[in-house]
Amino acid sequence: MGIKDLSQIDFNEHLNPEQFEAVNTLYGPVLVIAGAGSGKTRTLVYRVARLIEEGVDPESILLLTFTRKAAHEMLKRASELVGPKSHLVSGGTFHSFCYSQLRTYCRVLDYPSNFTVLDRRDIEDILGLLAEELGLKKETARFPKKSALASIYSKKRNCMKDCLWVLKRGYAHLTHLAPILEALFDAYQKYKRRHALMDYDDLLINWKTILKNYPEIQEAVSRRFNFIMVDEYQDTNRVQAELVRLMAYTHDNVMAVGDDAQSIYSFRGANFKNILEFPELFPGTRIIKLEKNYRTHQPNLDCTNAIIANAQEKFAKRLVAVRSGGRKPLFYEALDENDQAEFVVSRIKDFILKGVEPSEIAVLFRASFHSFQLEGLLNRYGIKYVKRGGLKLLEGAHIKDLLAFLRIILNPVDRLSVLRVFTLIPGLGEKGVQRIYEAMIKVDDPLKAVAEFKTKAKWHQPLKELVHRLLAIKEKDLGLSDLLKGLTSIYEPYLTDRFPDDYPRRLQELNELSLIAGAFEDPGEFLTEVALDPPDEEETYGKGDAVCLSTIHSAKGLEWKVVFIISLVEGRFPSPMALERDEDLEEERRLFYVAATRAKDVLYFVAPRLVNVSGGGVVPGKRSRFLDEIPPGLFEIWGNKSRRFNTPGKQELTTPEPVKVGGNGFRVGLRVRHQVFGPGTITKVIDNEKVAIDFDVVGSKIINTQVAKLSKI
DNA sequence: ATCTAACCTGTTTTT
DNA sequence: CAGGTTAGAT
After folding, report:
1. Among A24, A85, A467, A634, which residue's Cβ finds the most Cβ atoms within 10 Å?
2. pLDDT tens figures, A264-280
3. Strand C: which bases are under 7 Å from protein Cβ?
4. A512-to-A350, A393, A463, A535 alpha-carbon distances in Å
5. Contact A562, A602 (CB under 8 A)
6. ω into A679 cis (within 30 of 0)
7. Residue A69 contacts strand B, CB under 7 A
C-alpha cells in the first residue's frame, strides 16, 4: 500500500518514526503499546487524518474509548487536525456507541427502541427493592448493601462469569449467597425487560448478542465501519474486546492503542492482559511500541519509571524524555492532614504569584473524601477550584428530585420516582407511598387513582393538590425544556423546604438542567444522555481559571504543569480495600503511576505523619509503601522543621488578630487542653463558637467550642 | 403498634 | 449523601 501525496499534512515532520509507522499502517490489525505522555491519542488522530487524506470515507471510521473524557479529548483533537470532515467520523464511548446502535436494532431482541438507560443509582435502588420484595433481607443475616449488590452484578456481567466466580474473588465471606443472588439478578433482568430498561452492562451485552445472532446485522455494521480504532485499550474488558472483534470481522482494520501500565479499571472487569490477547484475537497483528515521552523531563521520568519498575507483570518499556532539564520530584512529609492542606495551599499561592495559571495546577488523591480538608482551606483563601470525580451534578438530591418528577410524567408507575416525589410531602413516608402505589398499578390511569385515593391522613389534601398540578402539566403537552421548567415550579416549594440554607444555588442548577434539556426533543433520550454522559460541573458553571482537584481515576489522560499527590500514607493510598489480594495491590501501584505521570514540570508527593481517623482522633501514619519502593535519590525530601513557621500561608493563619474575646471567655494566647488533641494555644477567635488553636502535637485546627470539650490550663 | 423524621456516622475507583 | 438507628408522633 503505497503512500500517496501528502498534500495537506507533512506527517513525517510531525511524528517520530514509530508514530509514523503506526499512522501509515492503514490496513490490518495494529497494536500500539505506548507509555504515558508518548503521544498515543496524537497517533490515533493523525491516522484518522491520514485515512481521510487517502480518500477513505470519514463515515466509515469509528473511534472508541472507555471513558467519556478520553472520548471527548479524542474527538476534539480530531476536529482540530482534520477540520469539518471529522464531524462525519463516528465515535465516543463504547456505551454511547452501543446505545445508538441498539436504538436502531434492539427490536430484534423484543425491546422497544425508546428504552431508557438506568444510571448507577437506579440500578442500586431496583436491586434493593427487589431484594426486599423477595424477602432476602429478613431471611439472610448480614445481607450485602445494595451498592455491593450492584458491583457484584456488574462484575458478573462484565467478566461473563457466574455469581460464585465473582464472590470467590473479592467477596469470599458471601459465597454461600451465590444461589440467592442468582435469583435476585434473575428477577432484576425480568424487571428491566418488563419496564423497557437497560443498564450499562446491557448496552454492551445486548449489542454483542445482536452481532452474534444476526449475521446480516453484523455484516451491515462491519461494512459501515471499515476502520475501527480503540484508544486506552487497557481499559476495555472482555466484552468490549469481543465487540470489536465481531464488528471488524469483514476487514480486520483495527488499531488499538494502550498502555498496560495504566490499567486501573479492573474492578469493572478491565484487564491489562486484554492487551496481550489482542494479537491472539487478531492474527497477524503488527505491534508498535512508543517509548519517547513528550510530556515531562528526565528527572520526573526516572522517578515514574522506578514506580512502575516495581510492577510484577508488564511489558518491558523504558520511557525516555525528549525534553531536557527539570528537577526531581519533591516529597513533603507534613505533620498532619491540616499541615498537608496548608502546605499545598501555600505552594499553590506561590505558583499563582509566580504567574502559573491556576488551571495548570492539580491536586490528586485516591478517594474523593481525601480532599475535604483541602477544600475548606481553599475556600477560606478564596482560591477557585473545580473538583472532578467527586459529587457530580447528577448526584445532587435536588436534581434527582426533578428528574423523578419528569419520570412520573413519562411513566406514572415508575416506582422509584413515585416514592421519591411523594415522600416530599410532610407526613407521608415509605409505607404510605407503598399503599398508594399498590392502588396505582391496578388501574389504567394511575395518577387519577392517586387523586381519588381515600385516606384520613393529614397528607391527603397536599397529595391531591400535587397530583392535580402534575396532571395539569401533563395535559399541556409541552416541549421538554418547558416541561422541566413547569415541573421546577411545582417542585420549588418542596425545594425551599428541604434545603433552607442553599436553595438558590440548587434552583440555579435546576434551571441550567432545563436549558441543557432544550437540546433534546425526546424526553427518554434526555434521560439516557443524563445517565450516559452527565454534564459535568466544569462545563455547567464555566469556571474558567481554577485549580483542579481530582481523583486519580478521573485524572487519567490529562496533564498539568504542577501536580500534587496528597495523602500518600498507608490506609489512604494504597486503599485498605486493596490490601488483601496481590492483583489489587498491583493495580494500586499502577494508579500511583498514572498519578505521577500527569505532571509536566513540577511533581510533589505529600504525606501527613498523623492521620485523622473516624471519631475525631489522630493516629500516627506510615508513609505509603509506594514511596518506600522508589530508590532514594530519585526524589528530594523537603521540609525542615522550621518551614512550617516560615511559609507565607502559615504566617497568615497563625498571626494573632486584634484580641477578640469569644462569648465563652476564650481569647488569643490562652493555653487550653482538648480531649483528643491535647494541649495547645489559641491563635484566633473566629466567632462565638469557633476558635483556631495551634496544638503542641498536631498543629493548627479550627475548634468549635460548643462541641469540643476545652479546659483552660 | 406502626410509621415518620431527625440524628449520627462512614465513605474507592466508572460507564 | 445515604444507611442505620432511634426518639417521638399518629
Report:
1. A467
2. 988 888 887 888 889 99
3. 1-4, 10
4. 35, 11, 28, 10
5. yes
6. no
7. yes
Residue with cell 416506582: A415
Q: What is the pLDDT of residue A389?
A: 63
* Residue in the structure block whose three cell numbers are 521520568: A301
Residues 6+ apart with CB under 8 A from A305: A318, A319
Residue A40 annotated as part of some ligand binding site: yes
A575 is near strand B: CB distance < 7 Å: yes
Is residue A38 within 8 A of residue A522, CB to CB? The reply is: no
Q: With contact defined as beta carbons under 8 Å apart, do A274 and A236 qualify?
A: yes
Task: For chain A, give the mean pLDDT.
Answer: 82
Query: Residue A526: in which H helix or E strand, if any?
Result: helix A523-532
C-alpha cell, A272: 491489562
Q: How far is CA A392 from CA A268, A494, A533, in A?
A: 20, 22, 11
Closest CA to A278 of A586, A594, A94, A32: A32
Residue A452 in contact with residue A489, Cβ under 8 Å? no
Helices (H) and strands (E) in chain A, counts: 31, 23
User: What DSSP string describes A425-464?
Assistant: STT--HHHHHHHHHHHTTSS-HHHHHHT----STTHHHHH
Closest CA to A291 of A263, A318, A328: A318
Distance CA A448, CA A521 (A): 27
DSSP string, A63-107: EEESSHHHHHHHHHHHHHHHGGGGGGSEEEEHHHHHHHHHHHHGG
Q: What letter represents residue A697's amino acid? A: V
Q: Which nucleotides of B are covered by protein (CB under 7 A)?
A: 2-5, 9-15
What interhelical angle do A523-532 and A480-498 show, nearest 10?
60
Alpha-carbon A90 to chain mean position: 24
